[in-house]
Amino acid sequence: MEMLESFIIPIIIIVLIILFLSFVPLGLWVTAYFSGVSVGIGTLIGMRLRRVNPGRIIRPMIKATKAGLTLEIDELEAHYLAGGDIDSVVDALIAAQRANIDLEFKRAAAIDLAGRDVFEAVQVSVTPKVIETPVIAAVARNGIELRVKAKVTVRANIERLVGGAGEETIIARVGEGIVTTIGSSIDHSAVLENPDAISQTILKKGLDSGTAYEILSIDIADVDVGRNIGAKLQAEQAEADKRIAQAKAEERRATAVAEEQENVAKTQEMRAKVVEAQSEVPQALAEALRSGNLGVMDYYRLDNVKADTSMRRSFSGDTKARESDED
Fold it and tell me: What residues contact residue 79 under an 8 Å CB cut-off, 6+ apart?
């Protein structure tokens, strides 16, 4: 029994030591102490209790201290708990110090929490960045299309990184300036002869206002002549006019055909009425003879007049009139 107890007690002690070392980052405390970072064991234990990885705080703190920066552990921990990237912030502060840029920890943390890469922003502030626009098509007043590609040299503005617009806005504004400048040109050849006029016109508009960048220069990298939009539009307009004229002509033809058919129908109707009236003449004559309104001699005289009229028309060559009489 005594041998068992003497065997268990050392195991328990070893387990407790392992648990203690796994919970208390003693090695990290030793590293911080010899690096000149004043941090207590209680602070590291408190980080563990707050579910903060002490290494993510202490190592950037050591890097900042070695670079000559004065930072508070509470600030780093608060930024870590807010979801920030402490390494990026500390790297940005070190780069800003080397470049003599006035950048405080609070501003750098705000830039990082805003979703921007603060270290890259400091680098772009020191070394300007070139943004290449896509091919932008614009049409001059003479109808010729020009396809332009520009390179915009920008420098990050630390003061406007929080709340300022990004690269997409710069590209969109430059594209708008190119379209406006080319669209106001009377002839596309003037733009080809002096492409710098586009850059000068755009720079005067102050396109970097409200953005996180300062535009240093706009260089026209390439200008190509595209389609003859004016001629194409004229051809399409002529084709449209042709179709309209054809439609109107077809409408007039259909109207004329309808009128002709209507006239034919009216003529046929009138002929039918005449035939109907002619068919009633013998009946009327018979009725007149029976009622005594017309004598036999009157009927013969009427028949003679009709025969005489038919003979006269035959002599004069009026065949159609004769045929109508016979009908």
Answer: 86, 89, 109, 112, 113
In this structure, what token pair is assigned to residue 205? 């508009």
Cα angle value 139/144/145 (rounded, 5°): 50
Q: Is the pLDDT reported for residue 21 higher than 60? A: no
Which residues have a Cβ under 8 Å from the Cβ of 139 and sit 6 or more positions away?
145, 146, 182, 183, 229, 230
Cα distance between residue 137 and residue 47, in whole Å: 57
Q: How many CA atoms lie within 13 A of 33 on its CB side?
A: 9
Total residue count of the chain as it appears in this document? 327
DSSP 160: G
CA atoms of 84 and 116, how far apart (whole Å): 11
Rounded to whole angstroms, how far apart are CA atoms 195 and 150? Answer: 10
Between CA 164 and CA 262 the distance in angstroms is 76
- Read off the pLDDT of each residue in 290-313 and give the average, rounded to a whole number: 69
The structure's pTM equals: 0.55
Instruction: Identify which of 132, 106, 286 has the alpha carbon closest to the alpha carbon of residue 218.
Output: 132
| Range 260-268 average pLDDT | 83
Q: Is 223 helix (H, G, I), strand (E, B) or coil?
A: strand
What is the DSSP track for 184-208?
A: T-S-HHHHHH-THHHHHHHHTT-TT
Tokens of residue 6, six digits: 């003497």
- Asked whether the beta carbons of 118 and 111 are under 8 A apart, the reply is yes
* Beta carbons of 135 and 149 less than 8 angstroms apart: yes
Average pLDDT over residues 33-59: 79
